[in-house]
Amino acid sequence: MSHCICLLSIAAKLNLMVLLLSAVYFCSCISDNIPKFALATKEESDLKDENGEESVREDDLDSEDLEVFYPTHQWQTVRAGQAVPAGLHVRLNLQTGEREARFPDNKNEKSDIEDEKKGKRLGKIDIDSNSFTSQELKKALAKMKESGKTESTVEQKANVEDVRKRFRRIEELKEEFEELNMRIETDFEVMVKLINKFNSSASTLAEKVAALYDLEYYVHQVDNAKDLLSLGALRLLINGLNSTEPVLKEHASFVLGAALSSNPKVQVEAVEGGALQKLLVVLATEQSLAVKKKALFALSSMLRHFPYAQQQFLKLGGLQVLRNLFKEKGMETLHVRVVTLLYDLIVEKMLLLEDSRNDDDHPQTKEKVEQYSQVNLVPAVVEQGWCVIISNLLGLPEHDTREKVLKTVHVLLAFCKDLYQQDHDLSATLTLLRSEYEELAAEEHKEGDRDGYFKELLNSINTIIQELK
Ligand SMILES: *[C@@H]1O[C@H](CO)[C@@H](O)[C@H](O)[C@H]1NC(C)=O
Ligand SMILES: *[C@@H]1O[C@H](CO)[C@@H](O)[C@H](O)[C@H]1NC(C)=O
Questions:
Q1: Where is this region: Disordered (predicted)?
Q2: For the ranges 165-169, 336-340, 354-358, the one whose mean pLDDT is highest
Q3: Which of 46-60, 138-152, 239-253 is the least confident region?
């Protein structure tokens, strides 16, 4: 509590910019002593899997913006990745899942309390924001460098005056910070705290959700995800999947999905820990779209590039579980994601087999080929009637959906050929799409784009029509 008060008093005395600046100066003095400070910022490439999985990325993962949150006395939504300066009043809006922050307002204590009460009713909670995490500082730094460039000289001068008037020597501030024991936490320390928060029976549901929400940010990094294992937190997350609270199911899936993504160690432990069964139960039972969306995200991360899990998935009837999502009302937004997953898994195996023909002496390749030979996804897909389920999605209006479905139809063509050749609806749809994209491709061409997006779609439609003749 004393931390909080001191920080607030600093914030009140100095303007916020100065506070941030001093924090940055301060940290640049001590960063040599902090082992994990030089964190790589989360790169785009970390978010993309090899197949450029877009549909999962778009709302499962946060957009990357190196930004600082500029507080006012009004509640404002804190966007993902924004650094929140210490000492602000932060709350989580449970209905939207968004964080909101503002200056603590002593003058309006009454309305504050009222707001608080209202907040409780609306499902909003306060979050402690008294410490900078290393990410936050790093982001604040990046943003400040940028804004420093664009600021006009007049403003800069005014700022300098301001600083001179109110700013104390760095040394003094350093002492103050040291007194506050404010320092940059390593990822590991933050994760330990978050995991304890999630695991503590004293934590409220909202606090647990907030802890998972933050944890998700950290586990994108492969090493952090491995720490999850050594801390024994994977077990907690897997148990979260069958929590009685849907919101915990959702967020546990979210963290798992991020941790599993391109991380074989976590994939192996998760599958051995029974995560696959639990995810399938979530997908097979009555749950909200939000919960199923995240469970599908986690399932996808679990299966990609992990033939053993794919084999288990088929054994456990996972394909039927996914097919039932097509019968369930309100789950339409999951359909394209499911098709994309199947496409990725089918292509993954094909590419491996192709590679192995060029490189079949390599023992690792041999082992992989052996593992993938146990995954009989395509026969199961054909047998369970996916050919038509998938081609029916060509009726959807979005171009990128059609693109994904066309790719999948194309890859399944050899196996679904008989069905597709007899499918009059499909040939009618393809003819319609062809004329639509002929027009769009022509426009694209007129605008100078010879090998544009629509041309590509048109080509793939023509190829399918040709091969079905
Ligand atoms: C979670 O809490 C329980 C009971 O307090 C404890 O035994 C367990 O070690 C904790 N797990 C983790 C991963 O912190
Ligand atoms: C979740 O599953 C585990 C077994 O994996 C079981 O021990 C636990 O009681 C279940 N929790 C709930 C809330 O059903």
A1: 99-118
A2: 336-340
A3: 46-60
Q: Kindly give the distance from the C-alpha atom of residue 182 to the centroid of ligand 1, in angstroms, as a whole number.
A: 27
User: Is 44 a domain residue?
Assistant: no
pLDDT, mean of residues 171-187: 63
- Amino acid occupying residue 405: V
Q: Domain for residue 350, yes or no?
A: no
In CATH, what number is assigned to the domain containing residue 230? 1.25.10.10
pLDDT (tens digit, 9 = 90+) per residue, 354-381? 888 887 677 788 888 999 999 999 999 9
Ligand minimally distant from the alpha carbon of residue 273: 2
Same domain, 171 and 195: no
The range of the structural domain enclosing residue 29 comes to: 1-33
Do residues 3 and 104 both lie within one domain? Answer: no
Enclosing H/E stretch for 77: strand 76-78
Per-residue pLDDT tens for 46-79? 333 333 333 343 344 333 334 566 777 777 887 7
- Alpha-carbon distance values, 65 to 61, 81, 124, 155, 421 (Å): 12, 6, 25, 25, 48
- Ligand 2 centroid – CA 239 distance (Å): 6
Ligand 2 binding pocket, CB closer than 6 Å? 239, 242-244, 274
CA of 238 relative to ligand 2 center, distance in Å: 9
DSSP-based helix, strand, coil % in the chain, nearest 5: 70, 5, 25
The atom number, within ligand 1, closest to the CA of 199 reads: 1
Q: Which residues pair with 76 in a beta bridge?
A: 101
Q: Are residues 125 and 222 in the same domain?
A: no
